[in-house]
Design a protein that fits this description.
Elements: H1 6-10, H2 12-47, E1 55-57, H3 64-93, H4 99-126, E2 128-131, E3 136-139, E4 146-148, E5 153-158, E6 162-167, E7 173-177, H5 183-193, E8 198-201, H6 206-231, H7 238-257, H8 266-269, H9 275-285
Helix pairs in contact: 3-4, 6-7, 6-9, 7-9
Length: 286
């Protein structure tokens, strides 16, 4: 800072210059102090986990191998059971199994499984999670954006495979795999982002088991029902069961139309499934 001497104050010109320099120095010191305070404030916010900064997260490409392995194991278990059921029903009404049963059905199963794994790989590589103080947004091609606000999150369920984020809307849920890059950072920021949400560990429960079994049985009914209509010897049951299947499929499709976890391209393609019971009814009755 410029020092003011007695001689400078005695000279009118010098005194004006000295006062001007003093004022400039004082203002500069004040601006510097304010700038340092702002820097300290920003640093404090970055270091404070209770104030999540806006950040994007992606899945680790190397961790997709675990999901692919689980999908292959699932196909290896469910596929033979499905083929055995088709062969059993077909064998009850035909003495000889057709080439379609033993060749084309297994090839179709392998092809569909391969395409499913490829589709999941594209989703794995394209998934983006954006976490800010205002909302959590999931961006994924062919899916509508899924956004959550902190006060809508009710429960955060942690498991060995990742985090399931539940909201006050039954269809608005988000599962975040532990294959996320910087998964621990996302986990800690999520807890600070939604402080009112319950954080619980996933444990087996009777209710969850009943729900899972009911979902599997419903899928078997909706997709296996048309197959039963094609082979049942009780023709009088074809029409009432077929109408019931059509109503059940319509209700299921309408229920999932508003789900952000349903691909946009599949929302209209699902209506094609109504042809399965309709064709079974027409084939057996006419």
């Amino acid at each position: 800072m410029t020092s003011l001497t007695r001689h400078q104050f005695d000279s009118p010109t010098c005194s004006c210059q000295a006062i001007s320099e003093f004022a400039k120095a004082h203002i500069a010191c004040g601006a510097l102090a304010l700038e340092r305070a702002n820097i300290r404030s920003v640093v404090a916010n970055v270091e404070n986990p209770a104030v999540p900064q806006s950040r994007s997260y992606r899945l680790d490409p190397a961790r997709f191998a675990g999901l692919r392995r689980r999908m292959i194991i699932g196909v290896a278990i469910v596929g033979p059971l499905m083929l055995a059921g088709i062969w059993y029903l077909d064998g009850r009404f035909e003495s000889k199994h057709r080439l379609f049963d033993f060749v084309f059905l297994p090839l179709m199963l392998v092809w569909v499984s391969y395409r499913s794994i490829q589709r999941e790989r594209r989703k794995w590589d394209a998934l983006v999670l954006e976490l800010s103080d205002a909302c959590l947004i999931r961006r994924l091609p062919d899916f509508p954006p899924l956004d959550m606000v902190p006060n809508a999150v009710t429960t955060i369920v942690e498991s060995s495979r990742g985090i399931n984020i539940q909201t006050n809307s039954r269809l608005k849920t988000l599962f975040v795999s532990n294959g996320l890059l910087d998964y621990d950072d996302f986990r800690s920021r999520l807890a600070a982002w939604a402080p009112t949400a319950r954080v619980v560990q996933a444990t087996p429960s009777v209710r969850a088991s009943i729900t899972a079994v009911a979902s599997v049985l419903w899928c078997i009914l909706m997709f296996g029902g048309p197959l039963y209509l094609m082979y049942t010897p009780y023709r009088e049951l074809v029409l009432p069961l077929g109408i019931g299947l059509v109503i059940g499929l319509v209700a299921t499709i309408l229920y999932y139309q508003g789900s952000p976890n349903m691909p946009s391209s599949a929302k209209y393609g699902l209506w094609v499934l109504l042809l399965l019971p309709l064709l079974a009814i027409i084939t057996r009755l006419y």
